[in-house]
User: Fold histidine--tRNA ligase from Nitophyllum punctatum.
Amino acid sequence: MQPIRGTKDILPDEIALWQYIYRTVHEILTIAQYSEIRTPVLEMTQLFERSIGNGTDIVNKEMYSFVDQGQRNITLRPEGTASIARAIISNKLYTTNNINRLWYLGPMFRYERPQKGRQRQFHQLGIECIGISSSMADIEVIRLATQILQKLKYDKYTLAINCIGNLEERSIYQQQLTEYLNKYKNDLDIDSQKRLITNPLRILDSKSSKTQQILQDGPKLKSYLQTKSIQHFNTICEHLIHLKIPYTINDQLVRGLDYYNYTAFEIYDNNHFNAICGGGRYDTLIQQLGGPNIAAVGWAIGLERLISIIQQNIKIIQPKLDIYIAIPEHLNNPKIWNIVHILEEYKIHFEIDLTFNNIKTQLKRAKNLNAKECFIIGKNEIVNNYITVKILETAEQKKIDINILPAYLQNFKSVK
Ligand code: HAM
Assistant:
């Protein structure tokens, strides 16, 4: 049996890094007053159609959607922002707090062609700052992204930002762009020809050099931006300079989801050119989904992509095995659990051998596992209330009374 194409097991030797990332992110975001939220993996399909947009690749061809037993149209979430916006509305979170700073980490699902850095089930770490329209919130979230990456010892990335204006500015621009591109329709790449009808703005980030050449002389979104949009963007740039966060302005950056306005940004890995993080402002999304008019901004980092890069730099020290408990004969005496209980109280890392193999085999495993000591507990030991301790490095052997086990472990820990 193989896992489903585009999905992956995260094995025990990889999980330590995932846990380390979780702890690191938890610490940084808790200090900044972001609270963790967990939303369901399953949502109504229309949530994504109404937020990400019907003309987008995600909704058009990448969603895992099905009809459930109750004839509802359900989708495995392809991203987190729509679910967070839905959760804000369903739980009326805006009534208890004007500002909701939230973060999440969980699996997302997109039916894309699997390749390096692209899976069908992948994980996003995301933050959403909901309830602030000021550009200060954009700066806060961008700063937090770079802070997290820095803490994870990753700095070989490029932050690209763009101002994509508001709906009005964009729709005027879209009209002009479509008019211009229609003149060159047959010279555009096939995808862009389709996008001319479904989502013309996405043509801007086409990978085709011919299309890019045509775009060069076309109308620029920048020229359609009004003062408010420009000021919003300029403030972000000023603060990023002050914060010494390097960035590049990328006029072509429009993002593949429809809900953005004003700010759009991405963080790319310098070597693989993959987007590690994507985000932006989405001031109309919550209202569009039936909630109140609440501005918001956020981002999501693709964890598999990030991990594939940082795993070289971060060495996680796994806790060592302290004590191996060898039971050399069939011992059904419950007193063994009293010893286990004391080890747990002293937070000693232990493993019990439950094979009842001969003592030689058990000691061999204790050595292979690099345990410091082996506690041998046989019938004799149980009856006479002691433990035979073997120091594995020196092969020295001694007996300790179970009554003095706490004191022994205290000493064991202090010299460990
Ligand atoms: P996105 O750009 O679609 O934005 O995804 C964010 C990140 O998820 C990407 O930069 C990438 O690292 C990772 N990612 C996306 N698809 C895959 C895949 N198939 N396999 C592996 N990694 C992938 C969003 O999802 C927005 N919700 C971000 C956001 C939050 N905007 C505002 N708040």
About this structure: The CA atoms of residues 150 and 400 lie 49 Å apart. The longest strand covers residues 100-109. The pocket of histidyl-adenosine monophosphate is lined by residues 79-81, 110, 112, 118-119, 122, 124, 126, 128, 256-257, 275-280, 298-300, 302, 304-305 (CB under 6 Å). The longest helix spans residues 12-31.
